[in-house]
TrEMBL record:
GO molecular function ontology, one term from the record: ATP binding
Gene3D superfamilies: P-loop containing nucleotide triphosphate hydrolases
Protein name per its UniProtKB record: ABC transporter ATP-binding protein
Pfam families (alphabetical): ABC_tran (PF00005)
Keyword ATP-binding appears in the UniProt entry: yes
CDD domains per the UniProt record, alphabetical: ABC_BcrA_bacitracin_resist
Keywords, ordered alphabetically: ATP-binding, Nucleotide-binding, Transport
Amino acid sequence: MQDKRAGRVVIPQTEHPLVEIGNVTKKVRRRTLLKDVSFNVEQGEICGLLGPNGAGKTTLIRVMTGLIRPDSGDVFIGGSSVVRQRENAAAHIGAIVESPIFFPYMTGRDNLENLALLHPNLPDRKARRKRVNEVLEIVRMDKRADEKVKTYSLGMKQRLGIAQALLGDPELLILDEPANGLDPMGIRELRELILRLKHEFGKTVLVSSHLLDELQKICDRIVVIREGERVFAGSREEMIGRHAGLEEAFVEMMTT
Ligand SMILES: Nc1ncnc2c1ncn2[C@@H]1O[C@H](COP(=O)(O)OP(=O)(O)OP(=O)(O)O)[C@@H](O)[C@H]1O
């Protein structure tokens, strides 16, 4: 819903959080990768998922996107269970879990038009073309859209990946370490894009990253996972508390 006067999106107030993660446990053989993890993400928030290497962030994202099933607990996206109503839940999600894969000898636009064929809400060529143009503009790739993907920088490929995730106009975007390998300009463009997705398009974003300065700049909510357990969930301000910044708060949390 666009509020033209303010130029910002008015987020409809719903009864439930967009994301509800309830007591998720995941074991592989005898190892517990996630232990009773619970937290919520409200509509229109940017939520940062932090944790040391091997903490279980990607595993949690794989559960959220329905790629793997939890042993117990559940995740509700827009009220739909990823375990029992996987397709309904998935309809709310656009995600980049591993690096997005494109055909390098095709243009960015052709790659997106190809992927748009998979979206049930883009039934004909005209609808697909229109949506591809929209997402290219959102990620500021419209000027380079007709060049081959092999000529793109890593940052451009990452933005094209976000354009792909946006094709179905999902309410929730899940980005697993999207800033990996990007140079400072690429990181800045990514930051601006994520903030624009929230402010102009009303998207909810869950982003995992080890770049704490970046998360401090963009996140409303922070969730910290350590050894498969949720050790913190709250606002950015609550997380920082008396510390100078997110990094100091995180380091103390990990060392006490
Ligand atoms: N299929 C699997 N079988 C066995 N162990 C696994 C499997 N998948 C993940 N793991 C282990 O689970 C732990 C959590 O992995 P995960 O990738 O979720 O961590 P992460 O927090 O995303 O780490 P990083 O920050 O390094 O990306 C790791 O020790 C990993 O080796």
